[in-house]
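Dear colleagues,

As part of the handover before I leave the project, I'm documenting each prediction I ran so the next person doesn't have to rerun anything. This entry is a single chain, and its sequence is reproduced below.
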Amino acid sequence: MAAAWGIPFGQVFGGVIRNNLGTYIAGFSRSINNSHDILFAELTTLYKGLTSLNFEEMVCYSGSLLNLINDDYSRYHIYVVLIQNIKDFLSAGNFSLRHSLREGNQCADFMAKLRASTDDVFTIHSSPPQLLLPLLRAYEIGSFD
């Protein structure tokens, strides 16, 4: 199972869960109240994606969090509790975090932008929105243009 966490769009974030062939399994999106901190939104995205969806194994792709999560010095970070919760969750199961280029996160970015037009706090999308289908197809064939 693979997940991509989108770069937050304002106070929102999104993610896409795919199987090892790139087929859509689920997506999620959420708004964050009272915060404009992009790093907080990205960490929250990763944590909620890991803890809200019931998978036994997952490879998570992120463009910016890999070093922060793997850094031994994160215990001094302003978000130390959230970072430690993510580390604990990753180490408790068959989960890993890998780097992804921005092009690989287009589907997750779409889910984040989708949240910008609604008022719900957290939504799991069991089927992909129609406008996401071309991006999913591009990902499946390895083309991100």
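Residues 1-9 have pLDDT under 50 and may be disordered. The beta strands are 2-5, 12-18, 24-31, 57-62, 94-99, 122-125.

All the best with the project,
I.
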